[in-house]
């Protein structure tokens, strides 16, 4: 029942052979697969965290850009307002000037017209007066007296007119 | 009375015959024990099963078979890894082999074979290899000087006890396994001889399956525990 013999050595050899075989056919393939999967998971996790970090960086970048854009937009609006105001003033001033000029010109034109009108009127009046005087004096006075009378009349009326105007 | 006596005699005769570690055949005058022959069968089964189970392993989308295999092998690996730590990782494949071998050996009684672990040759071989591995792991970790010094630690007075441990550890490992399996075997043979029908089933579940697996677990657990103790550095 209890025998210890060479079979002990056989068992040792068996165990070593079994160990080598199982290590080759069971442990190495299975643990290799498990390790590979773990490595894959690790790399994927690393990838994911890298991607997240990148996304966060981009987000921060965009946010700063957005904030900058807001400020810039405000600046642009303020600048545009200023420019519009300046433009408005400029236009108004120009319009005022133009209006003043036009008024002046109009006044000058009116003055000129009136003077011309006055001259015409003077001539007409002179003609009329001459006719009337001619009619009155045609019988009694000769040509010489007529002319002197006419001149005197012209001087008197024209002088009166000039003093009145002034 | 006489009849009963002969009945008992025949049971005893039968039992002794069952307990005998027979020589199944001889090669060149060397008797090959039954345990060695059964070990060969177990080896063939284990290697064949490994080859069949590890075909087309995939990193992604593993099948059910692969998942079961991975959780079994990975679970065994982590069991030893927890005890041994980083330095003992190189010894894990051997411990896994021993665990599988003892486990299968102990429950092979169910299939009608005589468990090889019932043969003292096998348990002695296992225990000798365990103590060699235990001492080697300490030697490998600490070097010759540290290994020799480990015999006078924690105090030099313990030197004789430490030396005795070199023998006590394997003897206890070997005898625990041998005694348990032999005892279970004897009880089962007796039961089968007395009540061959139905009654042996629950006992077989306990003695062959439960006790067998527990003993396999205890053997490799203690071996790895001794190893981690040996590799401990202060």
Describe this structure as you would to a colleague.
The complex is a heterodimer of chains A (166) and B (234). By secondary structure, chain A is mostly helical. In chain A, helix 1 runs antiparallel to helix 2. Helix content of chain A is 93%, strand content 0%. Chain A has one domain (31-165). Chain A is rod-shaped. Chain A has helices at 7-137, 143-165. Chain B is globular. Chain B has a two-stranded antiparallel ribbon. The longest helix of chain B is centred in the last third of the chain and has 36 residues, at 159-194. In chain B, helix 1 packs across helix 6 (159-194) and helix 4 packs antiparallel against helix 7. Chain B has one domain (35-231). Chain B is mainly α and 234 residues long. Chain B has seven helices and two strands, in the order αββαααααα. Helices cover 74% and strands 4% of the residues of chain B. In chain B, a hairpin with a 2-residue loop joins strand 1 and strand 2 (30-33). Classes of the chains: A mainly alpha (166), B mainly alpha (234). The interface between A and B is large, with 32 and 48 residues.
């Amino acid at each position: 029942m209890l025998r210890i013999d060479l079979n002990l050595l056989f068992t040792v050899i068996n165990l070593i052979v079994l160990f080598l075989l199982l290590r080759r056919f069971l442990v190495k393939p299975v643990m290799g697969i498990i390790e590979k999967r773990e490595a894959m998971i690790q790399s994927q996790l690393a990838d994911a965290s890298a991607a997240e970090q990148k996304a966060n960086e981009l987000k921060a970048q965009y946010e700063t850009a957005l904030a900058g854009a807001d400020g810039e937009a405000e600046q642009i609006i303020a600048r545009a307002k200023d420019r519009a105001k300046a433009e408005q003033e400029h236009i108004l001033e120009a319009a005022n000037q133009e209006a003043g000029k036009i008024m002046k010109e109009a006044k000058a034109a009116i003055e000129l017209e009136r003077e011309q009108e006055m001259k015409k009127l003077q001539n007409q009046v002179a003609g009329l007066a001459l006719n009337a005087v001619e009619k009155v004096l045609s019988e009694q006075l000769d040509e010489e007296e007529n002319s002197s009378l006419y001149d005197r009349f012209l001087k008197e009326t024209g002088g009166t007119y000039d003093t009145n105007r002034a | 009375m006489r009849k009963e006596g002969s009945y008992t005699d025949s049971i005893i005769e039968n039992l002794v015959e069952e307990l005998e570690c027979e020589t199944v055949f001889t090669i060149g005058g060397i008797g090959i024990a039954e345990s060695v022959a059964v070990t060969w069968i177990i080896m063939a089964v284990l290697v064949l099963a490994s080859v069949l189970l590890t075909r087309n392993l995939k990193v992604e989308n593993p099948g059910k078979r692969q998942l079961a295999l991975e959780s079994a092998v990975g679970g065994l690996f982590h069991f030893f890894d927890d005890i041994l730590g980083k330095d003992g990782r190189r010894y894990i494949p051997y411990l896994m082999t021993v665990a599988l071998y003892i486990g299968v050996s102990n429950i092979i009684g169910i299939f009608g074979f005589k468990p090889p672990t019932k043969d003292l040759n096998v348990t002695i071989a296992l225990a000798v290899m365990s103590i060699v591995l235990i001492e080697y792991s300490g030697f490998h970790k600490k070097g010759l000087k540290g290994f020799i010094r480990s015999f006078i630690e924690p105090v030099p007075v313990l030197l004789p006890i430490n030396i005795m441990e070199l023998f006590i550890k394997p003897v206890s490992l070997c005898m625990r396994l041998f005694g348990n399996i032999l005892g279970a075997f004897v009880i089962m043979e007796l039961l089968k001889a007395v009540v061959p029908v139905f009654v042996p089933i629950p006992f077989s579940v306990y003695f062959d399956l439960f006790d067998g697996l527990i003993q396999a677990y205890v053997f490799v657990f203690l071996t790895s525990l001794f190893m981690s103790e040996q590799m401990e550095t202060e």
